[in-house]
């Protein structure tokens, strides 16, 4: 038993050992060089602001990813973690100053961009995706930061940094906040800034933890009282950032579950007696509710009772349903004709799909026979041609 435990430990140590593959001194120098905000970094920041803002404005995921890859914001954030881990107060001040300057420039520039842009999106999904961070964003930032500092410490670096830049988005949230300022949609501003703070805090925390684990050379020692105060501050900051994200994640999960229940309920009750559900809308008003738009004859008592009973089976409460009935002014015969038309249309669509599948299957069969006719059977001997 003891031999087995020792073997497992040696195996884990063999595969998980990273100290033979890192160079902390070279990593520290590279991280420090990425903190400076001058020269090329100024221009690169400007380019990434324009690219990210344009990508958000046209709702293009590919363009936004490009801005993530070239943004220099990761440099001072990792520098903060290195400074905390090595007790380098001067580096901490420099990294914090450069990060603050980059953030302010990004906010001002993106705000001006959206003020000048003539394009107004009807459904800005890329903007909205960065306004409601959750605990999942915390996990992404934390593990992305761990991967980032480990990649910086490796003797032979690969493409991990690019992946970290995409996963832990920094520039898009700032540009989304700029959009919120330009349009006075402050829910965009605060939500996006919260996402940026999550990424900043947990990339810094991950860097700090890994710097300690990899035993980077410290600049100076800390008195026990100072070290305790710093650890308490870090713990309090983590709690302040994490708790709202957990609440947001719970709300997101509940919203998703409610949407799925409503969709299943509507599909099951599309036709109710002589009424037809042609649209529905989910919204929040002292809780989650669904507004169901119906047309046809108004539901009678029996139909309403069955309707709400079906909703309860889908775990939707009666007070969560708001019915909007729109009468078409039809007679009973006309309503029956409308319902029959709906059924006939559904039957025709299904028949057309089945016919398409039959045609595709016939083409596949034809191609199969053609291929079989072209393939030579290996069991048939090939007789050489006689020479004349």
Précis, in short:
With 388 residues, the chain is of the alpha+beta class. It is built from 14 helices and 4 strands. It has a domain at 17-221.
Structure description:
The protein is α+β, with helices and mostly antiparallel strands and 388 residues long. It has a domain at 17-221. It has helices at 2-16, 24-33, 40-57, 61-70, 74-86, 89-116, 125-128, 135-153, 160-167, 171-183, 186-213, 224-268, 301-313, 332-374; strands at 271-272, 275-284, 288-296, 321-326. Strands 1-2-3-4 form a four-stranded mixed β-sheet, covered by helices on one side. Helix 3 crosses helix 10, helix 5 (74-86) packs antiparallel against helix 6 (89-116) and helix 8 packs across helix 12 (224-268). The longest helix has 45 residues, at 224-268.
Largest sheet: 4 strands, mixed
Instruction: Flag low-confidence runs.
Output: none
What's the mean pLDDT score? 83
Please list the strands of the largest sheet in the order they lie side by side.
Answer: 1-2-3-4
Radius of gyration: 31 Å
Structural class, judged by helices and strands? alpha+beta
Estimate what percentage of residues fall within beta strands: 5-15%
- What level of helicity do the residues show? 55-70%
Overall shape: it is elongated
N to C succession of SSEs: HHHHHHHHHHHHEEEHEH
What is the number of strand segments? 4
- Count of helical stretches: 14
N- to C-terminal distance: 81 Å
